[in-house]
């Protein structure tokens, strides 16, 4: 009964249609219930995003307040001079561009025995400049009696580290609804005042009141700690009668209200989205269930109808296409294709009809020819890749073996170095070794070129420099001799930039030769600073060139930082360079043990270039002189 291809195609097509219809119906129905959960989650995305942004702003404001409190302690200890306080206050706000304003407020008679009120307040004006506002020092304002001051001071005296005041309308300065976060100012554990940072709420309220996932959704923004409604937007409800009141005036609100837990209000079912902020405020958006799932249900029905109709149409087209004369052409095509699949790439398919299968046969023949060509090309590419991989492996081995790993660390001095190779192996290297009991040599260098040739040239240069220095020649004679040796071995027209130094461990004096290398940085009491060196020609260019040395002296605790151009010329995908100024700023960010600046700079470069590839070796060397032997 089902021996003919036609009958088999008919039954198969009908069976596929039935299976598709059942599967699509089942999947669509199951998908609806899953979509309900996704719809609920999606409804809260904008709310979560706003809450997350508000929490970030709250965190910044609280940190700003804590920094101001620390500034207040410094101001009190530094003689209580107003000009010092103003400089500290405005300096703090330069680091917080989003802060509206704030100040420091002292308890009575703390700053001056005969002055009850002492405060400093600054704000950001319309030109984005930090300016002082002295109106808060006036008798008329009397900050000691302001609600924000009494609320915050009361909580700080109870031991809280930071506290948010109840929202209020500011008549002086901003003239807008705001709230204030405060932190305590302490001297020897005693609370002597507080610092504040203001949070303007007009723009925030406008964003909150615009949140409407559906037509009849409504939002509540309130201060739960102080039981205060900041903003309320319910259709057909006068929000002016609600704002500023207790949460108890809302008939639908209760302490047991939970996110996702449906409640009844005015004959409708609502699902609440609740987002708690870090400062005790919270945001609730109530969405009618009927509106939330209306579009999802309608879309499900439309999708289900379209899928079933499409399945029927596809099955019908499939049946008509497969029903045509395919016995002999398919058999012939299959037989020849199997022979080709077994590796007989000389086999060719010949068909005269039908047209579709003729085109398929021609495409198959072309594909077979392309496969033969690609196999030949792949074979050549594979051999080339193996050669390049072998060369890179050898170059990496040479480069790794040339770098000493046992860094000196004793009572006289300490030295660390690192080298991060690029994807294509270059010729960066560093070296350090003793000359005699009181002299120690150190070298950092960058060889032009890539691959095994650069690695071998690097080994030649490194060996020549070390041999000449350890042979007892003075530094100028040693480098002149090393340069001649390097030139003799230079058959590829390569060159080496290098910084070679010899430190006197008894005095801290460093005699050096800079052969076309990057300017070093010297760290003293003022931090890391670039200093001009006696610059010479690169090594390996001219054998008769005479190199001149320079000298400088390291005091105990001074550091010398050397690097190759792979540091300052590290690039982003937009070809923006890391640069010498960024390197100096990174080194001066904070005080660190000798080994940490190298890691800190490397991390800074990685954060700067992000995902851009590294095209040059990154090599650094740092040396610190401790004291006389």
The structural class is alpha+beta
Number of helices: 13
Strand content: 15-25%
Instruction: State the CATH class of the domain at 403-625.
Output: Alpha Beta
Give a quick account of the main beta sheet: strands, pairing sense, barrel closure.
7 strands, antiparallel
Give the arrangement of secondary structure elements.
Layout: H1 5-43, H2 45-77, H3 82-94, E1 101-106, E2 118-124, E3 130-132, H4 147-157, E4 162-164, E5 168-169, E6 177-187, E7 190-200, H5 202-209, E8 218-223, E9 228-233, E10 263-265, E11 268-276, E12 281-288, H6 289-322, H7 327-341, H8 355-402, E13 413-420, E14 429-434, E15 439-447, H9 451-470, H10 475-488, E16 496-504, E17 509-515, E18 521-524, E19 527-530, E20 535-536, E21 550-553, E22 559-563, H11 565-568, H12 580-587, H13 596-609, E23 618-625
Parallel strand pairs: 17-20
Antiparallel strand pairs: 1-2, 1-7, 2-3, 4-6, 5-6, 6-7, 8-9, 8-12, 10-11, 11-12, 13-23, 14-15, 15-16, 16-17, 17-21, 18-19, 18-22, 22-23
